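2024-03-11 09:14:02 INFO worker-7 job=invfold-0412 stage=load source=structure_tokens
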């Protein structure tokens, strides 16, 4: 019997971070195939599998299985997996994936703008149009009341769908 740790390295001294395995334990006999790595499925029971190793394209976030060592040395790839987000971009400064707050903000503005336009078209615009028509027909009181309803809907929509806060507000000059 031999001792192995969580990184599939053989140990001499037994501690809580290692398990006993038979001499024929596969990760001790051979390295994983090129483009694969050993992964514990249950460390306490010494159960493992061989899984593919991926690198990620820094510009597209596309995963690419490591089929030769060139991928690991290519500066357009990273071994760090990106978060599952549309706004994650690679930062050479941080050497990590970061959230593009400006892109996230712009998407939030577009979403608010889209829903406001939809609500205006459904609720306030028809009332405003009707008030103009009533005014043309000389029905001033009804036109004023309808216009007031349109303005109330307009304000309600703005309150229910506020603009998102800009993460990078411009300082006044």
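2024-03-11 09:14:09 INFO worker-7 stage=emit residues=173
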């Amino acid at each position: 019997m031999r001792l192995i740790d969580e990184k599939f390295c053989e140990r001499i001294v037994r501690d809580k971070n290692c398990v006993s395995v038979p001499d024929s334990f596969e990760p001790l006999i051979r390295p994983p195939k090129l483009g694969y790595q050993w992964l514990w499925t249950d460390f306490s029971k010494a159960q493992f599998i061989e899984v593919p190793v991926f690198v990620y394209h820094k510009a597209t976030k596309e995963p690419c299985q490591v089929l030769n060592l060139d991928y690991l040395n290519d500066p357009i790839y990273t071994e760090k997996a990106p978060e599952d987000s549309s706004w994650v971009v690679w930062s050479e400064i941080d050497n990590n994936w970061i959230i593009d707050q400006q892109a996230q903000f712009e998407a939030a503005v577009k979403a608010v703008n889209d829903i406001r336009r939809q609500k205006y078209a459904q609720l306030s615009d028809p009332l405003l149009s009707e008030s103009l028509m009533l005014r043309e027909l000389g029905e001033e009181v009804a036109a004023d009341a309808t216009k007031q309803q349109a303005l109330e809907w307009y304000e309600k929509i703005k309150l229910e769908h506020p603009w998102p806060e800009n993460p990078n507000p411009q300082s006044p000059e």
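2024-03-11 09:14:09 INFO worker-7 stage=report msg="Strands lie at 2-5, 10-11, 18-21, 36-42, 47-52, 54-57, 63-65, 77-78, 88-91, 96-99."
2024-03-11 09:14:10 INFO worker-7 job finished
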